[in-house]
Amino acid sequence: MVFVPSPTHGGHSVTPVEQPPTPVKLVIAGGFGVGKTTTVGSISEIRPLTTEAAITEVAAGVDDLTHTPGKTSTTVAMDFGCITIDPTLKLYLFGTPGQDRFGFMWDDLVEGALGGLVIVDTRRLDDCYAAVDYFEHKDVPFAVAVNAFDGEVEHDLDEVRWALDIAEHVPLTVFDARKTGSVRDALLVVLGVALARAEAAGAP
Ligand SMILES: Nc1nc2c(ncn2[C@@H]2O[C@H](COP(=O)(O)OP(=O)(O)O)[C@@H](O)[C@H]2O)c(=O)[nH]1
Ligand SMILES: [Mg+2]
User: Fold this and answer.
1) Phi, psi of 21, deg, nearest 5
2) Total structural domains in the chain?
3) What confidence tens digit (pLDDT) does each residue in 25-65 have?
4) N or C end of the chain: which has fewer CB within 10 A?
5) What is the CATH number of the domain that holds 189?
6) Segment 140-194, tens digit of pLDDT
7) Residues lining ligand 1, judged by CB closer than 6 Å?
8) Domain for residue 97, yes or no?
9) Is 113 domain-assigned?
10) CA 74 to centroid of ligand 2, rounded, Å
11) CA distances from 136 to 77, 100, 110, 140, 143 (A)
């Protein structure tokens, strides 16, 4: 909060002026159908901007729908939503398109991001490796969250960490993409690693 002279009192008194919350950009990544669009939609305080398109017969042949038979749409560019965490902090969430063929967009999406959340579906671990690998190489702080579809996780977390080659310092949790509180907790973990990185880099 800052104080500015109040014009109505000849500049002698001060009126508190609320500072807008600090904007923080986070990227929500992971393979096709892991729950990225659901995650952004569960927590966004604005109607999320999404670029869903109907899955065409052509895409159905390209994208693996085995574990998402009910999925009739897919994100062609990105998801966008935001959530005010407290009066000082507002998160801007950018969900990546899951398909490899949209990989060219990732560099633009992570530009300026303070952190990332990689969502994992334990039935299709392979699909999530690219996202983990990407954040590692770009040196963007990130956390990994297993989306417990219907409360079920097929592998225990140690196995997931091993299979995806997730470093020990990277937090790995289980969450439910459909539940606001659960998504919020997962995002707070990402904020934690982003903050730790900023502090390590000597930020005030
Ligand atoms: N049962 C269940 N379904 C989910 C969950 N998260 C997402 N879904 C469904 O799984 C499908 C894929 O989710 P979506 O958010 O579109 O995945 P995206 O491709 O990563 O954006 C959708 O039909 C969702 O409704 C979950 O936690 N449990
Ligand atoms: Mg999507």
Assistant:
1) -65, 150
2) 1
3) 999 999 888 999 999 999 999 988 777 666 555 455 555 56
4) C
5) 3.40.50.300
6) 999 999 999 877 777 789 999 999 999 999 999 999 999 999 999 999 999 999 9
7) 30, 32-38, 68, 70-71, 74-75, 98, 147, 149-150, 176-178
8) yes
9) yes
10) 5
11) 22, 17, 12, 7, 11
